[in-house]
Every structure is written in C-alpha cells, then in structure tokens.
Amino acid sequence: MTDINATREPGRLGRVWNSNFVYSFRKNPVAVVSMAIFLLIAAAALLAPWLAPVDPYDPSLFDIMDSELPPVWSDSGDSRFLFGTDDQGRDLWSAILYGTRLSLIIGLCAVALQALLGISIGLIAGYVGGRTDSLLMRLADIQLSFSTLMVAIIFLAVTQAMFGSETFNQYAVFMLIAVIGVAEWPQYARTVRATVLAEKKKEYVDSARVLGFGPLRIMVRHILPNSLSPIFVISTVQVANAIISEASLSFLGLGMPPSQPSLGSLISSGFDYIFSGSWWITAIPGVVLVVLVLVINLLGDWMRDVLNPKLYKG
Amino acid sequence: MSLLSVRDLTVKFAMRDQTVTALNQISFDVGRGERIGIVGESGAGKSITGFSLLNLISKPGFIAGGEILFDGQDIAKMKEAELRKIRGNRMAMIFQDPMVTLNPVLTIGQQMVETLMAHRKLSRAEAEQIAVLKLREVYIPSPEERLHQYPHELSGGMRQRIIIAIALLLDPQLIIADEPTTALDVTIQADIMELLLELCQSNKVGLILITHDLGVVSQMTERTLVMYAGRIIENGPTREIINDPQHPYTQGLINALPQQTLPGHKLKQIPGNMPALTDIPPGCPFSPRCSYATDRCRSERPRISRYGTVEVACHEVERLLKDEKKEMTA
Q1: Is residue A81 assigned to a domain?
Q2: Cys-Cys link to B236, which of A22, B172, B271, B310 (CB 3.0-4.6 A)?
C-alpha cells in the first residue's frame, strides 16, 4: 500500500519541481537567465576573499606605479590586472568583487530591516484597526513624504559632521543599513496592511479566534503566511532600490569610504578620471551595478506576474 | 443546572447615525448533552447568536445587556484571557463553508497540533497522536497521511469532517454549528449531519445547530428555537414545534416546505419580507405579514410566555389554541 502511494506521489523535491511556481520559472527564459546571472554575481561576491587576487582593503599591497592601468584586453593592459587598476594602483577586479559584496550585504540587510519594521507595523495596523491604524498609517505617510535620498543625505551628513569622518567610515556599513532601512519601511507597511485587511475578513481567521488563539498568534502564524506573496514581490524591488540608494549615497561621498569601496564609491572614485581616458574605473563597476539591479528587477517582475492571482491563468 | 443559560441577551450594532438592535432580549437554556436547533430566515439573528455565545461579536457590534452563563460563569463579562480558555476548549464552533474555514497555508496536522498545544501542555508527538485519533473518529481514511496534506488537497466533505474533528479535539462541552452543511453537496450533507449527531451523542456534547432547514432540525435536535427579527418567538421540543407549531410565523415556515404542497401547485410562502433591523414595527415584528394580526399586535409587543411545553411570543396564540380546541370537539 505504501509502495503504491510512493510511486503515485512524487517526493517533496518533485512536488516543488512540478509546482506552478517552479514550472513557470522553468518556462520563462528571462527569469532563468536573470536568476543565473544573479546567482553568479552573488556567488562571486560571496567568494570574494578567495577569488580576488589581492586584498583591495590593504593599501600596502598597491603599487602607485601600477596606477590607472587599462583592462587586460586593451593594448597597454597588464596580465596581473584583469579589469585594470584605479588611481592608486588597486586591482579593479578585486575591488569590484569586494564592492559587490558590500553592496549586496547593505542592500539585503537594509531590506531585512525595512521588512522587519514594515511588516510588524503593517500587521498591527491592519489587524488592530481603528485609531492605531490611523496613527501608524499617518506616520507612514509622513515618512513617505520625505524622499529616501533626502532623509539619508541629511542624516548621513549630520552624523559625518558630528562624529568626524574617521569614526563615520568605521561604522559606515551600519549607518547605511540603518538609514536605508528606516527610510523605506512604509512601502512594506502599506502593502502588508492592505493584504491583512483583506485576509482578516476570511473565515479561517474567525475560526482561529473561535479556537481561542490570541491576537499575536493569529497575526504571525495565520495572517502573515497568507500575505507573503506581495511581500516577496516588493522585497525584490526593494533590494534593487536599496542597492541603488547605497550606490547613490556612496557616489555622493556619504556612503562607503574610498578605502572600503562599494560599487557606488568605486564609480565615484573613477569619475574624476573619466575625462583623462581612464574610463574603466567608472564604467566597469557601473556595468556590474546596472546588471545586478536589472536582473533583480526582472526577477521581481516575473514573480509579480506569477503571484498575481489576477494575471494567473490555470 | 443547565450548561448554558442565556438571559435577556441583547446585541446592538453601532451604525453611523443610529444603534441597531440585532438581538433583542433573547433567553434560552442548553442542558448538558442537549441538542437544540435555531431556525429562522436570513438576518433573523441566528449567526449573531452563535458568535455572541463566544463573545466574538466584532465591531461595530457589542453585547448591550444580558447574561450568558456557561457553567455558571458569565461569558458576557469575561476578560479576553479567560475567554480564550473557553473558546475552542470548552465551546467550539463549526462554520458554514469548509473551503475557507481552514487556513490554506498550514497543513491539517499543523492546524490540529497548534490547536491542541495552545490549550494543553502536550508534546508535539502526543498532540499528533490525538489528532490522528480524532481524524479516525470522523472516518477520515489514512489519517496519518492527511496530517501532512494541505486543505486544498481535500474535498469539501472531507474538509468539513476535519473541521468537526478540530472542533472535537479538546473534548468541548458544547458545539455551535452555524449551517455546517449549507456549502456542501446534498449527498454529503446527510453524511455530515449523521456524523455530527453520532459524535454528539457518543461524546455527550451539547449542540447548537443554526440552520434554516427544518428537516435537519427535526432529525438532529431535541429542542428548537424559532427566531424572527432578532427575537425568539417560539421555543419548545422539536417534535411539538414541527408537528404543532403555535406561532403563526412557525406555521408559515412549515407550510412553506415543499413537502406540504401537492406537485404542480404553488408553494405556500409567507407573504412579504422580514423587516430590516432599522425599522422593526412597534408591535409584534411579524404583524405586517401575519393573517391573524389585530390592532393589539400592531401596537403592543408580545412577551414570550409558556403554553404547555412550548414558549410562544404571540398575543393571539390563546385565541388560536381555543379555536383549535373547538375544532377538535366539533
């Protein structure tokens, strides 16, 4: 009897493989390619310490004589430096690997912070309703009426001035995560609240209340898992946005210092040399940034189509 | 002492410019292991009665007065934490549509284990054992495998069985079933009702069956309450109410059954509609539709009073009873 069932029912992995979600992924070449590129970039970033030929954070390893060498494929390229070097003689390939890693870490952590804040606030606002709801949503409106970059610039500029750039540079990663994370929580809060309002009316919530569950348990265990699809969709978009925000801030000199460059600060540091012919210092990290953000957005688009019940057809 | 004793329960809804009375001073008792039916048209207040018994009326509704004594404790005045100990544990509720009552993202097992562990100190393994036991009680085939399935993998009848199993998980003393078979196929309806009856009898669980199906009530219950416009208008042993209804509304309900009409003839329906809760006539709420209505019915609200084994809220019931006797002697 168990044998019959075993042959009829595929295993857990098989069920996942044949699920609508994975099926539509497999059938969508854009999604597959985007995912492949994203995984490639993510893996390269994760393995940066092993892949990078030199440690780009250690200035003692740079030789000023190697500065502004073009990439390997141009005539005067040096075989030691795949993507050439920057103005200090730093290997650009290593710097990009480490920079991508930083950008991804900041993007993901900032989005995690946004999600944590936004989901909790959205859940409470939607479930409790009434005055709590109005108060929290007006707070969100106020937060949204300031643009993220403006808040970030003011906050970072003030802290930089207050603590001096030495201390600031030391904690720049955390500052960036905090400021991007806090600035964008209303995106999550609004979406989550809207889904909670719809889910709250469903009978399984009534039945959970009838079974004697407390509000916290109903919110976290019953309503939240049913509200996940919009959260997934905005998360992808938000990761892309956070990476761009970080790059913009670093480009403006308010983010990662040139000694620990992220993609944004690399682009920024190369910007001064773009007219002297050293285009690669800016262009190559720029391309990496664009590709990274593009594939994340494409994945988000695909996910939105799959998870949207209105677009979903059998 | 009866298990549940509702006294003058009044539930109101605060609308934008007025307060609407959805339940008007209803009183009834449910004994231990007793099965009662609540019948009436849509909007009569049946479901609200069910929800208010668990003190789960959500805003803008509120309990405006009266007592709900469950085992001697007043549910209407209980704190949220105390209520939670009663809900699901000592009093359970079954809803209309099994397709939406179970949480779609949790497996059957997760939902059952969670319910058990929320009320009792049990290990996961112990809870799973009880869940399997209860699933077997409601005749779910291969219950161990069902525990790992999601609600969408099961049929409607199967899901309603599982919901009944969840309701019975903690051995409650009273089950409130709010039209438990309305959303199911006719063939499955009978099965589910039979199962519910069997389980209530074997476990000595009290049942409040909310329905508009008089046939189901006559099979399932010992006593019946007839509701109209937020009031109980007749309350008595089911057999009496079905065979010899006293209130003109109950008579109308029973006469309207298709079985009471010869094939090819028009159904004898009650003329008119139930009044909206916002404008209930001053006297008897049924008076505009009642063929026996007098001026007194239109101006003075009838109180519920006892005639033999039945309680009826009707001014004319005495005269009707006399007429009946005359007919019998003549």
Answers
A1: no
A2: B310
**Is A58 among the domain residues?**
no
Q: Measured between CA atoms, how close is A133 to chain B, in angstroms?
A: 15
Say whether A211 and B166 touch across the interface (CB within 8 A): yes
**Facing residues of B26 across strands?**
B9
Domain of residue A267, CATH code: 1.10.3720.10
Rounded to a whole number of angstroms, the distance from the CA of A294 to the nearest CA of chain B is 32
CB within 8 Å: B93 and A210: yes
My answer on whether omega of the bond before B60 falls inside 30° of 0, hence cis, is: yes
- Quick one: CA dihedral B249, B191, B223, B262, positive or negative? positive
Determine, yes or no, domain membership for A9.
Answer: no
* Beta pairing partners, B232: B227
User: Residues of B near A (CB-CB distance < 8 A)?
Assistant: 54, 56, 59, 83-89, 92-93, 95-97, 100-106, 114-115, 118-119, 145, 163, 166
Question: A210–B114: do the CB atoms touch at under 8 Å?
Answer: no
Q: Assess contact for A306 and A312: CB atoms under 8 A.
A: yes
| Cβ-based neighbours of B79, under 8 Å, separated by 6 or more | none
3-state secondary structure B25-92: EEEEEECCCCEEEEECCCCCCHHHHHHHHCCCCCCCEEEEEEEEEECCEEHHHCCHHHHHHHECCCEE
Domain ranges within chain B, ordered by starting residue: 247-272+279-329
Q: Which residue has the tokens 């495998």?
A: B145
| Complex ipTM over 0.95 | no
- Whether pTM exceeds 0.95: no
What is the total count of domains within chain A? 1
Across the interface, whether the CB atoms of A226 and B93 are under 8 A apart is answered: no
Residue A12 lies in a domain: no
Q: Give the pLDDT of chain A (314 residues) as one tens digit per residue.
A: 444 444 455 567 777 777 777 888 888 889 999 999 999 999 988 888 888 787 878 777 777 777 777 777 777 767 777 777 777 778 888 888 898 999 999 999 999 999 999 999 999 999 998 899 999 999 999 988 888 888 888 888 888 888 888 888 888 889 889 998 888 899 899 999 999 999 888 888 988 988 888 889 999 989 998 888 889 888 988 999 999 998 888 888 888 887 888 888 888 888 878 787 778 888 888 899 999 999 999 998 888 888 776 654 44
Which structural domain, as residue segments, surrounds residue A239?
34-49+93-307
Distance CA B245, CA A238 (A): 66
